[in-house]
Write a structure and sequence with these properties.
By secondary structure, the chain is mostly beta strands. Helices cover 0% and strands 42% of the residues. The protein has no helices and 28 strands. It has strands at 2-3, 5-11, 34-40, 49-50, 62-64, 66-67, 87-91, 103-105, 107-110, 115-117, 120-122, 132-139, 142-149, 163-169, 175-181, 193-195, 202-208, 224-231, 243-254, 277-283, 292-295, 313-314, 325-332, 336-343, 349-358, 361-368, 375-385, 391-401. The strands form 7 sheets. Strands 5, 9, 14, 15, 16, 19, 20 and 21 form an 8-stranded mixed beta sheet that branches. The two termini are 21 Å apart.
């Protein structure tokens, strides 16, 4: 909404009704009284400001990795059905296209025109403002991070290039780095490169869409997909781990073409913002100390030890406070009818997270409150006998949504 605003604060204005007009103290009479005015925009001129109802970026503090139910194949294509239901972050410019429950994260853009250097004209590619979707799945003790990029210029960089760069904490709190990117090496230009922070702790794969060619600065590409798989056990985590701290960077250099026949620095140099262009966006911080959380649901109905629950249990949601999603773990000792519902503070049911028959085991459900107002909510779990429909368990806890 476009608007201008004025705060008006008159002091000492006192109209004397016993005196004929205008001999009382008249408003705006600076010789007799005082007043104070300030404004945002202009004082009733044509300069307006903008009131936005939604943030430029969503920048959630956490995202839940959805449990994959089917077989996962590490080929970079992301064709498994589970990817369609994975929670998604959209990396890219402001107002990036998103659908459903997708969330946008911050970025920066730098686009330059063609330029001349040593009598050579460098023609930059299609001016690319594409965005990249990053998805999260977990299967057993493996975390999968999928990349879908409609990049129109899969360009080269001297040592790194288009792709995903991740820093994460291992279970001891030590930061490890993982990379998955296309590189400026002619012999393997169309093969994505994987680098890992812990030996034998994961793998990566990439897939170029038809019509895409890495390092070709004249062709308009059709994007790529890629897939990073991390073995959580190699980072010291186990089946009880609730969350992993990460910061993630999507890197998209455009128009970089270093000429090795010219003496340094007269080729096109990486990060040379005068000569080339690049786009970067990140979730967390650009290798600073701010990290986000990937929340891990319980991967199986039974713990790794093989023990089964002996009593009903309802855990406190995690994270709490939350925005917009939080996870609730619960345990069922025998086959039962289970219901988990969310209520607002005046007792109205706003969501049903679980309702049906559950075998003995440990489970989790996710409450997505994207369309709910900030505030306190209540969740209640009941377990009833399949034999006589008698209530065997009932528990209530509070959760807090902060937007």
């Amino acid at each position: 909404v476009q608007l201008s605003m004025n705060i008006f604060d008159p002091d000492g204005i006192q109209y004397n009704s016993k005196l004929p007009w205008p001999y009382g103290m008249i408003p705006f009479d600076t010789l007799r009284g005082s007043y104070y005015k300030s404004w945002w925009g202009s004082e009733w001129g044509d300069v307006m400001k903008t009131l936005k109802f939604t943030p430029e970026y969503d920048n959630p503090d956490s995202i839940v990795a959805v449990v994959a139910t089917g077989t996962m194949t590490l080929d970079g294509k992301l064709t498994e059905a589970d990817w369609a239901n994975a929670n998604t972050l959209v990396f890219g410019p402001p107002n990036a296209v998103k659908t459903g429950t997708e969330k946008t994260v911050s970025g920066n853009v730098d686009v330059k025109s063609s330029f001349d250097s040593w009598n050579v004209t460098y023609h930059l590619p299609y001016k690319d403002t594409s965005y990249t979707k990053v998805k999260f799945l977990v299967k057993g003790m493996n975390l999968y991070i999928g990349i879908q990029s409609p990049d129109k210029s899969i360009c080269k960089f001297d040592w790194e290039g288009d792709g995903l760069f991740v820093q994460m904490k291992d279970n001891a709190g030590v930061t490890k780095e993982y990379k998955l990117y296309y590189q400026n090496i002619d012999s393997t230009a169309n093969t994505i490169k994987y680098e890992e922070g812990v030996l034998n702790s994961g793998a990566g794969a990439g897939f170029l869409a038809a019509g895409s060619t890495v390092n070709d600065t004249t062709n308009v590409d059709n994007g790529y997909t890629a897939e990073l798989m991390l073995k959580l056990g190699s980072l010291g985590y186990d089946a009880t781990t609730k969350a992993i701290k990460v910061s993630m960077n999507i890197f998209d250099p455009d128009g970089f073409q270093y000429n090795s026949k010219l003496p340094w620095p007269y080729g096109m140099m990486p990060f040379d913002s005068v000569r080339g262009s690049y786009f970067k966006s990140w979730w967390g911080s650009e290798w600073g100390d701010v990290m986000k959380s990937i929340i891990l649901p319980t991967r199986t109905g039974v713990e790794a030890t093989g023990t089964m629950p002996t009593v009903f249990a309802l855990s406190q949601n995690y994270p709490n406070p939350f925005n917009p999603s939080t996870m609730i773990n619960f345990e069922v000792p025998e086959q039962s009818n289970v219901t988990i519902a969310i209520y607002d503070v005046i007792g109205r049911e706003v969501a049903t997270l679980a309702k049906g028959t559950y075998a003995p085991g440990r489970y989790n459900v996710v409450f997505n409150a994207q369309n709910r107002a900030s505030g306190m909510y209540i969740y209640r779990m009941t377990g009833t006998s399949l034999k006589n429909n008698a209530t065997m368990f009932s528990a209530t806890k509070k959760l807090l949504l902060l937007k």
